[in-house]
Amino acid sequence: MRRILDADAKRVQHNLSLRVVSYLDPVSLGRLCCVCRAWQSTVDEPSVWKRMWFRSESAKRSSGGFPVLQYRHSWKETVTGQTNTVSLGYRSRKRKRVGAFESGSENVLTRIRSAIKRGVLSRIARPIIEESSSETLSMGEFTRKYLKKSRREPLIIRQAMREFTERISMFQMDKLVHLYGSREFHINAWGQKSDVRMTLENFAHYLQLNHDRDPLYLFDPDVPKEVMDACTIPRFFTDDILHDLNTRQDSKKGIFTETGWLLIGGGGSGTKLHFDPHAVSAWSIVTQGQKLWFTFPPPPLPHVWGHGGLTSFPPALDIFERKNHEPERSGNVLDWISAFLLSHLEGGGGEIDGLGWGVQGVGDIVYVPRGWYHLVVNLSDGPTVSYTRWFVPRRDIRLVARTIEDYDQDSAKALREEMLQRLLD
Q1: How far apart are CA 230 and CA 224, in angstroms?
Q2: Which of 295, 425, 299, 289 is nearest to 360 (CA)?
Q3: Could you report the per-residue pLDDT of 178-202, keeping only the tens digit for each?
């Protein structure tokens, strides 16, 4: 217990030091790192320079409403514009890799992968339901087992790539960089004041050199047309009111203007525990890399589904309600997993009622029903590429319309009109 308290105290002290020095200018940081090795180590932390960039004048130059980031070999070089930073102490010693791959003295991703390999995650969570292949799952069976039930559950459909595309290379990093390397994409910067835009080539460069504790994550709804032309909606999700709504040029899309996203991230990037807003369901397919999913049942009142996002914990998940821990305000998904799920597992904790887990590989589709909480982290060292899309089957139209009418009457009206049009057709 004493060692745990000492470790917590050191972590708090370290995080406080990082926060303080991040308010210094580059020259002051250069002087500080010359004081002693301890301060040099603190100044070397990528998070210090990352925060500095997001407060700099560079972060105020926008493209499409967001700052444009040109990442160099590190956040320090990005801030200072220097390629040789020996004078600031950056290359004066061999640096141990930290950040997204390390929490304290332990490698979080290694712990996660080890838990998966040893099968011990099933001690605290139940495996997500699986179908072994899309080819053996009929549309009628999918509807009966996973859509018509009053209590729907998440599902992993294995070996489903043919349902999505025959041209998988169009959804892999090398091909995307070759075709769209100079194009700017929207990049989520969890924990910062603003997201950014980066060229895909520069983002690929960032992924190769990433040391971040909370990595940048490409999350863009504006998927190149040529890429979308290379894929189709899997047959299980073709009964989708949002797809029909967006194909009508004269419709008022409102909050449903964006319904599908291209996602690219390195190891340790991901999304914290959240549920999708507006009572929508979702599906996601991986085309490169691997993801780990955790799921938890919906909140008890359907009307709160309109307030989705990274907002709150499931009320029944008591192990997350710990004093002095506020991971819901942090962008660091690995710290979140380490602080709660892994500590619960490694402390000998038992199964958490309702919690599910599953690994999604290339060609696997994950279906997340309306209201279900989910946390996702990319496991691969290299880039993980995926496509995710909101999904509203016809039996959910009235619920979605009721959910959103208080804050988007136009979209609620458009949904009802689309439902009427379907009846007329």
Answers
A1: 10
A2: 289
A3: 999 999 999 999 878 789 999 999 9
Rounded distance, CA 82 to CA 210, Å?
18
Q: Treating both helix axes as pointing N-terminal to C-terminal, what angle do 397-404 and 409-424 enclose, rounded to 10 degrees?
A: 160
Residues belonging to the chain? 425
Among the listed ranges 139-148, 190-199, 217-226, 248-257, which one has the minimum average pLDDT value?
248-257
* 69 pLDDT tier (thresholds 50, 70, 90): very high
| Type of residue at 215 | P
- Given a cut of 70, whether residue 159 has pLDDT beyond it is yes
Query: What is the 3-state secondary structure of the chain?
Result: CHHHHHHHHHHHHHHHHHHHHCCCCHHHHHHHCCCCHHHHHHHCCHHHHHHHHHCCHHHHCEECCEEECCCCCCHHHHHHCCCCCHHHCCCCCCCCCCCCCCECCECHHHHHHHHHHHCHHHHCCEECEEECCHHHCCHHHHHHHHHCCCCCCCEEECCCHHHHCCCHHHHCHHHHHHHHCCCEEEEECCCCCCCEEEEHHHHHHHHHHCCCCCCCEEEECCCCHHHHHCCCCCHHHCCCHHHHHHHCCCCCCHHHCCCEEEEEECCCCEEEEEECCCCCEEEEEEEECCEEEEEECCCCCHHHHHHCECCCCCCCCHHHCCCCCCHHHCCCHHHHHHHHHHHHHHCCCCCCCCCEEEEECECCEEEECCCCEEEEEECCCCCEEEEEEEECCHHHHHHHHHHHCCCCHHHHHHHHHHHHHHHHC
| Predicted confidence (pLDDT) per residue in 35-61, tens digit | 888 777 778 788 888 888 888 877 777
- Residue 204: which of 382, 53, 378, 388 has the closest Cα? 382
Query: pTM value?
Result: 0.86
Instruction: State residue 366 phi and psi, 5-degree precision.
Output: -105, 125
Residue among 155, 118, 145, 150 at smallest CA distance from 295: 155
CA 352 – CA 364 distance, rounded (Å): 25
Per-residue confidence (pLDDT) for residue 154, from 0 to 100: 97
